[in-house]
Amino acid sequence: MFPLKKLALCPICGKYLNSSGKLKYHMLTHTGERPHTCSVCGNLFQQAGTLKIHMRIHTGEKPYQCQTCGKSYTSSSKLGSHVLRNHVADRPRNHHCTICSAVFMTIVHLKQHQEAMHLKLKPHKCPFCDRAFNGKGTLKRHVYIHTGEKPYKCTLCDAAFNQSQLLSAHMKKIHSNVLSNAN
Fold first, then answer.
1. How much of the chain is in helix, strand and coil states, percent to nearest 5?
2. How far apart are the C-alpha atoms of 9 and 20, rounded to whole Å?
3. Is residue 88 scored above 70 in pLDDT?
4. What is the pTM of this model?
């Protein structure tokens, strides 16, 4: 018989975790505490690793590159999702749009497609103007126009942008020499 590893028990939900460190992070799900703060935009996070990934939004860093098409991502999970969505040939695409010829891997993606493309649903309303959007992220980026917020800040100069792709373009155009020397 193998010796049983000492497990840590959550006193709130009864879940067993394999270390006291993991129990400590698990407890944050019950308390709602988010002790890690982004120094750029003030967003709060439960774990330091999540903050580290978030910071890549501000720096434009995308260290995870797809070996098939070269597209880059801020986290390995986003790269993994991209590969599954776009490059895994044996993954069945059996959710067919009844309006057009589009085919999707999940019913959720099919529904999102139909709402945005065919029903033209735009449930996310701008609180500053009459515009509406089909996605929360699109609305959030639009609101930056009204608020003047520029959460994507260059770490090498004082430039700031309201879109991550503008920061990425800035980094490539203005600081390409610094980026190439880092590799």
1. 40, 15, 45
2. 9
3. yes
4. 0.47
